[in-house]
Structure formats: structure tokens, C-alpha cells
Automatic annotation (TrEMBL):
Positions contributing to ATP binding: P106, V107, A108, G109, G110, M111, A112, G113, G114, S115, A116
Pathway(s) the chain acts in: Isoprenoid biosynthesis; isopentenyl diphosphate biosynthesis via DXP pathway; isopentenyl diphosphate from 1-deoxy-D-xylulose 5-phosphate: step 3/6
Domain GHMP kinase C-terminal: 212-284
Start and end residues of each GHMP kinase N-terminal domain: 78-156
Gene: ispE
Protein name, as recorded: 4-diphosphocytidyl-2-C-methyl-D-erythritol kinase
Catalysis: reaction(s): 4-CDP-2-C-methyl-D-erythritol + ATP = 4-CDP-2-C-methyl-D-erythritol 2-phosphate + ADP + H(+)
Protein family per UniProt: Belongs to the GHMP kinase family. IspE subfamily.
Keywords annotated in UniProt: ATP-binding, Isoprene biosynthesis, Kinase, Nucleotide-binding, Transferase
Annotated active site: K21, D148
Length: 302
């Protein structure tokens, strides 16, 4: 087994906050030879956060959940653990850390919580170990870990192509407000993609251009009219009760409801923060309110 030189960091702990994402547009193309799908997606980072604290610890990578959840693994299946292992291998150091993870992003909810944690771990490990890894290299390591991880590093709004890892930042002056209805039970992303393939067959991804144009419109109704998710039919086929959730949100006054990513979280676009509160109060479901876009994974310095 290869021995890594031991590196003693000058910091004893670092903390990183990382946001959830939704897909304002999720265009899904045919299955590729590498078992990924070609995507044309517009990512949007929103103000629901996971927080990861990285501390010096015994040899290896130990993860402790601050918000216990049986659906979140704490071993090498956790993307944060894998991210720190990958970063340590790149830097040729021996990891000896404890990860304390506080979840605020719904688990298996179509909001890329696991990918967000991987991005947070890359930023935290780079800071704790004083690596000063070039941003391009962090993006490369992120893409190795998962298709959504690079966007969690970037944040804001971005067009994602390839399997979602090739990013083009999108800039616009408008903040958007959301109500999210969360589910007690998550949904398997591979299962949703498989159901989508069964329903849709090998079709081309839908066009993200209407959403990109709508981001430049001040009226959020323009964005509401453009929201699109090619996976939505598959998610609704697997969870038919979500039809009722979307209908309830729109009846409560939301401009538009859409499945977030592969689901089962439902995202409702509203006009402003006050409107978000009104819609949330009218719903008989667990809700969270948020705004976007926001920055990607960031060190917390206070």
C-alpha cells in the first residue's frame, strides 16, 4: 500500500457553506455509451444550505452527521468522504480529518445535496491542507466525483452541457424567489432516468434557450412560463401523488410548479419573498422558502 507523506495543516478546522441547486431547464438526451445522458440544463443555486466543518483528526476520513438521517451514508459511499480521498490522492498527502456535516438540503430530493457536500469537502480540504489548488483542477476533480459537483463549486446560474459538468456561467440582474415542498422519502435518480428512457425513448434534449432568455426578463412570469423538466413525466409516473402537490402549489398562488431535478422535491416560483411566505402558509405540506441565485461553495470566515 502506498505511503503518503504526513502533512500537518496550519489550521485546525475550516467551515464551508454550500447551496442546493434546482434545474430551471433540464433537457435530457439519449443514453450514451458511458451510461450517462447528454444534458442541456440551466442550473440555479438557491439559498438552502448544507454546512461542512473539517477538523484535524485521526488517520483517515471520518464523517459525523450533525443532523442524523438514516438515508445519508457516513462511509466511503458519501461523496464528501470520496471528495476528500480524491483530493488527498491528488495532493499526495495522508488524510487525517473528521467531517462534521449539517444538512439543510433535502436528502435524495433532486437538489444535489450529495454533490453539494462533495464540493464543500473539496473547498474545505484545500483550505485545511493549505493546497491552493488551481480552480481548474478543483473543477476537474469535481467532475470525476459527479455531474452536479462542478456547479456546486460555481453557484449562480449556468448552462450545463455534456453530462452537466461543462458549465457556461449565465449572468442577469434579477433575484428569484421559491417555495419548495419537500418529501419524507427520497427518490433514486437512476430509477427516474431509467423510467424516463422507458417513457420517452432515445429523443433529443429539449432546448434551454427559452429559460436563458427569460432570466433576462424582470417579470418572473416570463421565467415561470419557460420552466421545463424532461424528467418530470418519469418522476410523476413513479410518484403520482406529486401531481396533487403541484396542483396545490399553483392553486395557492405560485406562478408555476415544477419537479426539482429528478424529484421528489417540488419547486414553486413566486413573485417575491412576501409572496413566498403567503404561498408556503397556504400549503398543507412541509415547505422551505429560498431565493436565488446565490454563490457556490464558500468558506465561512466568522
Amino acid at each position: 500500500m502506498e505511503e503518503y507523506p504526513l502533512t500537518v495543516p496550519s489550521r485546525s478546522a475550516v467551515r464551508v457553506r454550500v447551496p442546493a441547486k434546482i434545474n430551471l431547464h433540464l433537457g435530457v438526451g439519449p443514453l450514451r455509451d458511458d451510461n450517462f445522458h447528454d444534458l442541456a440544463t440551466v442550473f440555479h443555486a438557491v439559498s438552502l444550505y448544507d454546512e461542512l466543518t473539517l477538523e484535524c483528526g485521526p488517520p483517515g476520513v471520518r464523517l459525523v452527521l450533525q443532523t442524523p438521517d438514516d438515508d445519508v451514508p457516513t462511509d466511503e459511499r458519501n461523496l464528501a468522504v470520496r471528495a476528500l480521498t480524491v483530493l488527498a490522492e491528488y495532493a499526495n498527502i495522508e488524510p487525517a480529518v473528521t467531517v462534521r456535516l449539517r444538512k439543510g438540503i433535502p436528502v435524495a430530493g433532486g437538489m444535489a445535496g450529495g454533490s453539494a457536500d462533495a464540493a464543500a469537502a473539496l473547498i474545505a480540504g484545500d483550505a485545511l491542507w493549505q493546497l491552493a489548488t488551481p480552480r481548474e483542477k478543483l473543477h476537474e476533480l469535481a467532475a470525476r466525483l459527479g455531474s452536479d459537483v462542478p456547479f456546486a463549486l460555481l453557484g449562480g446560474d449556468a448552462l450545463g452541457t455534456g453530462r452537466g459538468e461543462r458549465l457556461t456561467p449565465l449572468t442577469h440582474p434579477y433575484q428569484r424567489h421559491w417555495v419548495f415542498v419537500t418529501a419524507a422519502e427520497g427518490l433514486s435518480t437512476p430509477a427516474v432516468y431509467a423510467e424516463s428512457d422507458r417513457i420517452r425513448g432515445p429523443v433529443e434534449a429539449s432546448d434551454p434557450e427559452p429559460v436563458i432568455k427569460a432570466l433576462d426578463e424582470p417579470d418572473p412570469q416570463a421565467l415561470a412560463d419557460a420552466l421545463c423538466n424532461d424528467l418530470q413525466a418519469a418522476t410523476l409516473a413513479l410518484r403520482p401523488e406529486l401531481h396533487d402537490v403541484i396542483a396545490a402549489g399553483e392553486a395557492a398562488g405560485a406562478l408555476k410548479g415544477i419537479i426539482s431535478g429528478s424529484g421528489p422535491t417540488c419547486a414553486f416560483l413566486v413573485r417575491d419573498a412576501a409572496h413566498a411566505q403567503q404561498v408556503a402558509e397556504r400549503l398543507n405540506y412541509p415547505t422551505k422558502t429560498a431565493h436565488g441565485s446565490v454563490d457556490g461553495a464558500q468558506l465561512v470566515t466568522h
